[in-house]
Amino acid sequence: MSTTEEAKRNAAREAVANHYPSNPRFIGIGSGTTIVYVVEAIKALGVDTSLTSFVPTGYQSNQLIVKAGLTPIAFDALPEGVLLDVAFDGADEVDDELNCIKGGGACLFQEKLVAMQAKEFICVADSRKLQSRLLASWPTIPIEVVPLAAIRVMRQLRALGSTTPILRHSLILKEGPIKTDQGFFIVDAPFRQLIVASDVAQGQEGSGKDGVWEVETLAREIKQIQGVLEVGLFYGLTGPQAQAAGKAGGQKPVAAYFGMPDGSVSVRKAK
Asked: The CATH number of 3-132+234-269 is which of 3.90.420.10, 3.40.50.10710, 3.40.50.1360, 3.80.10.10?
């Protein structure tokens, strides 16, 4: 196993050990390569999962749940008003304030649905995903769009400062643009490195002037474009903060676990 894969496994083990609840009813299972190790870690706990249902964020995670001998349940089959006990998912990049870029695997809409229906969202990744600001390493913001509106959306993204937004295509050119589980397209939009709320508090301009955006401000601007289903920026409240405000869950993880090259695990917690 490569150092990167071992790092993912270490992060998953520690995250599950610290956040898998006693006798849970519903657990969210995200998408991506790291989540394989989350499911592995859940199985390794040796706990009774017969009364627990696992909510996938897409086809890939549903298959992972089934192959592990766990019981999947579709998001829209959840009982009215129920919150997931916890949701585990990966990220493409995470900043100092635990804002995340997600959507590299084209599951961002369902990932956000699951995160926002959970009491707490736990992010699991390797050290490459840990950056001080978003778009420091990961090149673009994934955006799920209605196919009919894709060209219009890309025009609007350029007006917001994205230099070269493009439709994500299959590796096999004749198959055309990648489609999500909803049958939508993914637009990958590059922007300048995003600043965080603490930067704005210290006087930096984050409203798009000279192409400089703060995470939440840009996410809200993109979401307002007609034809956009969801934006691959996870920001704002954590699950506990949302519940304290009388809402369900939040987009931002309460904690992020990063497997390091030396075998250790770095844990960042939301403030």
From this structure: 3.40.50.1360
Multiple choice CATH, 141-231, 3.30.70.560, 3.30.70.1250, 3.20.20.70, 3.30.70.260: 3.30.70.260
For each of the chain's 271 residues, which pLDDT tens digit applies?
679 999 999 999 999 999 999 999 999 999 989 999 999 999 999 999 999 999 999 999 999 999 999 999 999 999 999 999 999 999 999 999 999 999 999 999 999 999 999 999 999 999 999 999 999 999 999 999 999 999 999 999 999 999 999 999 987 766 789 999 999 999 999 999 999 999 999 999 999 999 999 999 999 999 999 999 999 999 999 999 999 999 999 999 999 999 999 999 999 999 8
| DSSP tag of 194 | P
CA distance 122 to 99: 12
Is residue 111 among the annotated active site residues? yes
H/E stretch holding 4 reads helix 3-19
What is the C-alpha separation between 122 and 230, in angstroms, rounded?
Answer: 20
Q: Which of 14, 111, 216, 221 is catalytic?
A: 111
pTM over 0.90: yes
